[in-house]
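Quick sanity check, Sigma E regulatory protein, MucB/RseB:
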Amino acid sequence: MRYRAALGLLAAGWSLAATAADPADWLAKMSEAARTQNYQGVIVYQTHDRLETMRVVHRYRKQDGEVERVQTLTGAPREILKKGNEVICLLPKDRKVTLELPTPKALFPGLTPERVAQISRYYDFRDIGEARIAGRKCRGITIAPRDQYRYGYEIWADAETAVPVKVNLIAGGNHLLEQLMFTEIEFPKAIPDSALKTELDPSKFQKVTRVVPEPQPFAVDTQADQQIANLPPGYHVSMREVRPTADGQGIVEHMLLSDGLSAISVFTARRRVPSQTAFQGFSQIGALNAYGRISGTVHITVVGEAPSETVRQIGESVQAADAPAIDATAPAAPPEPH
């Protein structure tokens, strides 16, 4: 999960009492605030056996949009700068490339009120009261799945600004998979350019730059849906692309499935890969599940933050005959989260 919304600041006169009565409206305001408010602070991220501390600086200005700097404070130094749709990553030269670190802005798609209404078919929104987090008064809601095909959330947001300050990703009703929480946060009226510049020596790090597509409204590719015979309820193919393999020797088809909130990637390719070296079966790290199988000459890999049975059902339902034919000898494996 990787998204945007471009709405205005919170409307004058909105009250905390109104939010408590309408958790769906509060959720839409959180999604907006994570993108359109200035904030900076220290975040602790925990999943599986991984614990990481990061400093986040997020600025929004009407004239130039969003800029965000994420700096790791534990482990190997890493830093990510996001400006518009450009992502610049500095990381140790011996480390595998990654262009994502968890932040409040990266947690949700652009959840407009209309989109919240759409996903309410598959999720139930409930108020869970108040809490004090990072010295701030916060209001929380749950996003509970209505079936077994998706995870749930518990989210607390600052009562004054609506910026999310704590997020729990939940499986099976009460099993905590991931937690993201601010331990310090402030909301400056202005953030100087200097706060968004790296302090690392670029000559000592590998620099990776990527331009990501502009976010689009949630869409359904009904033709691509037909490539998956038994989609879980609510999931549809929202994006489909064909791109070169990492070794440059062929192409692989990538389909992004979404229910409007969660996202699952499906990769299909024809490969001459010995079955003993190709990724098959299950792999799980924290909330991320992956499933791979071989059907004839087609290698299918499904990866996403969704329950293992959802990932398996999708993987078993892909119509392998429709996969593109390529000539690639490198084994495919699920991407590793970082």
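Posting the structure with no commentary besides this: The chain has two domains: 16-211, 222-322.
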